[in-house]
């Protein structure tokens, strides 16, 4: 019989939580023949990346996944063989009782946030708390051997490389989004949280001698873009030009389309966790806007990733990347650090591809989860 999996997702950061769990649920079904229920407390957030979902239904099937609305009043539900609490969300008390009542207790894991910090390797897979004999385990995604790896569907990198080598496919995809960038234009994407440092970056792009076409999917950064442009009511489809910079607003697209958008661009500014990982699979230089946490503990995660990511770069290129990322995550002045970064563009482009391929040699997150379960039983 198929192993039954329950994945619980409490939507906290708009789309990051559901983005990760939706990718994971589909991959477990498609590649590992698992029976997956995905419990989501906010189906309207889910609808943005799965438009066919019916937000009024308590249960429905989407791409082989049994999608359930996680209600305030929990229904009587039998516990699954594997239970994943995504990002430390609290399981319903009645469901926890159902886990304890099973003849064979389930494997219970907390799928934690992604981090490159050294301690993650030592904590991955360790037992955590118990509930009436049901043991919970830490499960940490990561970039190093000994962690849970990164979400990566089978054949993803081969698909990406083929797409990036097909100029016609890229042009047709972009035109489908209403994007008509001139040949030789630097194509960039911007998906970020609110950032006071954006204006200085857009200023330097507008004053550049090289044309840039900036694609901005709907999101929280749009208000800052609108203020810089000095316009009101910036909406999907709007295109504005200032100097060498063209700014275009794109709709919020499905995950597969967003992947291809990243593959088309020469540089990707991303945020959170899901888009951060997908930008790395694009094999292109990137800029990460990390989710802010109390007491600035997010900066430790930022520094840990930068240390790992820039390890193979020349000292000057490393300094340029670190300066840009730190300025972006401190709402700082982006102008000087961007100009310095451009001096190392060829090296950074080659490095992004190399980093992607190196990470692709490690087992992906879904595979590691399944193997963890097989070892456990």
Automatic annotation (TrEMBL):
Source superkingdom: Bacteria
Pfam families from the UniProt entry: EarP
Catalytic reaction equation(s): dTDP-beta-L-rhamnose + L-arginyl-[protein] = N(omega)-(alpha-L-rhamnosyl)-L-arginyl-[protein] + dTDP + H(+)
Secretion signal, residue range per the UniProt entry: none
Key words of the record: Elongation factor, Glycosyltransferase, Protein biosynthesis, Transferase
Gene Ontology MF: a single term: protein-arginine rhamnosyltransferase activity
Family per similarity comment: Belongs to the glycosyltransferase 104 family.
NCBIfam families, per the entry: efp_Arg_rhamno (TIGR03837)
Annotated function: Protein-arginine rhamnosyltransferase that catalyzes the transfer of a single rhamnose to elongation factor P (EF-P) on 'Lys-32', a modification required for EF-P-dependent rescue of polyproline stalled ribosomes.
Protein name (database record): Protein-arginine rhamnosyltransferase
Lineage: Bacteria, Pseudomonadati, Pseudomonadota, Gammaproteobacteria, Pseudomonadales
């Amino acid at each position: 019989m198929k192993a039954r999996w329950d994945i619980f997702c409490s939507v906290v950061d708009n789309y990051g939580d559901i983005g990760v769990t939706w990718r994971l649920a589909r991959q477990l079904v498609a590649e590992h023949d698992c029976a997956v229920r995905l419990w989501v407390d906010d189906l309207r957030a889910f609808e943005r990346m799965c438009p066919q979902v019916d937000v009024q239904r308590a249960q429905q099937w989407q791409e082989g996944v049994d999608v359930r609305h996680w209600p305030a009043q929990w229904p009587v539900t039998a516990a699954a063989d594997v239970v994943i609490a995504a990002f430390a969300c609290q399981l319903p008390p009645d469901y926890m009782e159902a886990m304890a009542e099973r003849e064979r207790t389930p494997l219970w894991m907390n799928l934690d946030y992604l981090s490159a910090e050294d301690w993650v390797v030592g904590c991955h897979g360790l037992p955590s708390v118990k509930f009436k004999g049901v043991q919970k385990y830490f499960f940490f995604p990561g970039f190093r051997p000994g962690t849970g790896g990164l979400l990566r569907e089978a054949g993803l990198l081969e698909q990406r490389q083929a797409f990036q080598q097909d100029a016609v496919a890229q042009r047709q995809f972009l035109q489908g989004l209403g994007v008509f960038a001139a040949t030789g234009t630097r194509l960039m994407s911007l998906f970020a949280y609110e950032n006071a440092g954006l204006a200085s970056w857009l200023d330097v792009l507008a004053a550049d001698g090289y044309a840039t076409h900036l694609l901005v999917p709907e999101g929280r950064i749009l208000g800052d873009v609108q203020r810089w442009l000095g316009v009101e009511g910036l909406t999907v489809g709007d295109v504005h030009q200032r100097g060498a910079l063209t700014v275009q607003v794109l709709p919020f697209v499905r995950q597969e389309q967003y992947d291809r958008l990243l593959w088309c661009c020469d540089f990707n500014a991303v945020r959170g966790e899901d888009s951060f990982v997908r930008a790395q699979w694009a094999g292109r230089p990137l800029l990460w806007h990390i989710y802010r946490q109390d007491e600035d503990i997010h900066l430790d995660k930022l520094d840990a990733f930068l240390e790992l990511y820039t390890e193979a770069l020349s000292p000057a290129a490393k300094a340029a990347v670190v300066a840009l990322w730190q300025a972006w995550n401190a709402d700082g002045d982006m102008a000087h650090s961007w100009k310095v970064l451009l001096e190392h563009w060829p090296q950074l482009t080659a490095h992004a591809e190399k980093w992607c391929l190196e990470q692709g040699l490690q087992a992906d997150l879904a595979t590691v989860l399944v193997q963890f379960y097989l070892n456990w039983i």
